[in-house]
Amino acid sequence: MPGPALVETPHRTLITICLMIATLMQALDSTIANVALPYMQGSLSASYDEITWVLTSYVIAAAIMTAPVGWLAARFGRKNLFVACLVGFTVTSMLCGIADSLVQMVVYRFLQGCFGAALVPLSQSTMLDIYPVEQRGMAMSVWGMGVMVGPILGPTLGGYLTYYYNWRYVFFVNLPFGIIAVVGLLFLMPRVKQAATGGFDWLGFGVLALGLAALQIMLDRGEELDWFSNPEIIVAAILAGLGFYLFIVHMMTSKDPFIPRAAFRDMNLNAGLITMFSVGMILLASSALLAPYLENLGNYPVATAGLIMAPRGIGTMGAMMIAGRLTNKVDPRAIMLVGYGMLGLSIYMLEGWTPDVSVGYMTTTIIIQGAGLGFVFVPLQVVAFYTLSPALRTQGTGLLSLVRNVGSAIGISITSALLDRQSQVEHSVLAQYITPFARPLQVGGAVSKMLNPASPAGASLLNSLVNTQAQIVAYVDDYKLMLLTTIPAVACLLLMRKPPAEAMVPVSIGHTVMD
To answer: Cβ neighbours of residue 439 under 8 Å, at least 6 residues apart?
Structure first.
């Protein structure tokens, strides 16, 4: 937890600016590459399910490396860790920009996620330290808005840079801001005396990281390698099962595991973890699906696609502000139910999309989805920790953040694999209707000549049309899967206990103080 507020900290405003730059860099990079994926796919010679590794490698690395941030800060000093991670994040961003193969890109993105994992929790804890108690509410509001601005600006900025320059500038843009933040924090950030800390549960952390990494590899590579017919996928599945098994056994038998057993005895927290996992699956997976849909099927320029995706963040910000006020007056579970209703409605609307859907309808759908996420996030921070012991609150918030990141990575992998598989299945189904007896091929005229399967040009055009229709149906199947993921989370609302009025103050917005 943060130490005493350094009320007399000089240059507090400049430090805050540097902290906000670091926070925005990390938040931006979780979404900025989304609209650039189709362009990166061609440059790196990757298939659609392969290029999503650019997203999942970053998210899963951030999820894995969140756990030891507090221990590392206590062991090496918060300032030293912060500056080192910021330098590493900036350097790996540049490496991502010059990567010329998919393997290099995935490795560099994984390293970028490892360094970026510490930036948000360390910036939050530093903000709490440099502001006195009476100003912390204002400081956290500014910090929280910065966290939300990143995902909002990500697709729009990524689309602009890709359209007017090159997709590599999506990563190069971090260089000037990284240098400013590093120099500012190096000279202005005060050193905080850390309390002595014991050892970290590296065994528990190691087997959990093994399980998560192996599971992600299995999900990312499964579709390409035909799943369990390939030895690599079988080995990854065995390692994932072994890692999770050893983690559970270690947690149940170890004297001091890094995730305390007592945390899982709290029903509100357990229900909150399931809810956050569900939200995590929808949060990034829907964004990862939307960009290629708009660019490949809707034929929108990348800059326009980025602008179309921006309203989701606006909807989220507006809903979070409303939910923050209502949480003190209304049952938070009711607000979450409204949020899930809006999420379900938005996904149902997505199922009806076609490439010629109007921009107004798309914007409405995306705003509703963003608002639904906002109405779930804020009250969840209240309900999940209402019955949890204050001594376990830090571990609980860290666990919630871990589950959200894991859900996001798994959601992207599953929806990408399903999209690829269903596109092939639907293509084979629709191709059965392309016969000499098909009415459009018999009427004569320019259309039948253009679509004549006996000519190479006609066969190619027919295949392109069938492939487009197959992808549209495959996207609908993905959205149906997303809709199903909301059902367990809604059921969890019945298991949550309502907090009393005096407890209805959100702990944080999606992140935690890790030290």
So the answer is: none
What residues contact 330, with CB distance under 8 A and at least 6 apart? none
Rounded Cα gap, residues 146 and 150, in angstroms: 7
| C-beta neighbour count of 484 within 10 angstroms | 11
403 within 8 A of 510, measured Cβ to Cβ: no
DSSP 297: I
CB 404 within 8 A of CB 510: yes
DSSP state of 303: H
Q: What is the dihedral of CA 45, 50, 51, 54, to 10 degrees?
A: -130
pTM (two decimals): 0.74
Structure tokens at 20: 């906000």
| 36 contacts: CB under 8 Å, gap ≥ 6 | 158, 159, 161, 162, 167, 170, 302
Give the separation between CA 213 and CA 378, rounded to whole angstroms: 29
- Close Cβ partners of 390 (under 8 Å, ≥ 6 residues apart): none
**What is the Cα–Cα distance from 360 to 94, expressed in whole angstroms?**
37
Counting beta carbons within 10 angstroms of the beta carbon of residue 286, is it exposed (0 to 12), middle (13 to 18) or buried (19 or more)? buried
3-state secondary structure of 466: helix
Give me the tens of pLDDT residue by residue for the chain, a chain 515 residues long: 444 444 456 777 788 888 888 888 887 777 777 777 778 887 888 776 677 788 778 878 887 887 787 778 777 888 888 899 999 999 999 999 898 888 888 899 999 988 988 887 788 777 767 777 666 656 665 666 666 666 667 777 777 788 788 888 888 888 988 999 899 888 888 776 655 555 678 888 888 888 888 888 888 777 777 788 888 889 989 998 998 899 889 888 888 777 778 778 888 888 888 888 888 788 778 877 887 888 888 888 877 877 887 788 788 878 877 887 787 778 888 888 898 899 889 988 888 888 888 888 888 998 998 888 888 877 887 777 777 776 676 667 667 777 877 888 788 888 888 888 888 888 888 888 777 666 666 656 566 666 666 677 777 777 788 888 888 888 888 888 888 888 888 888 888 877 665 545 444 444 433 33
Identify the H or E element spanning 335: helix 332-351
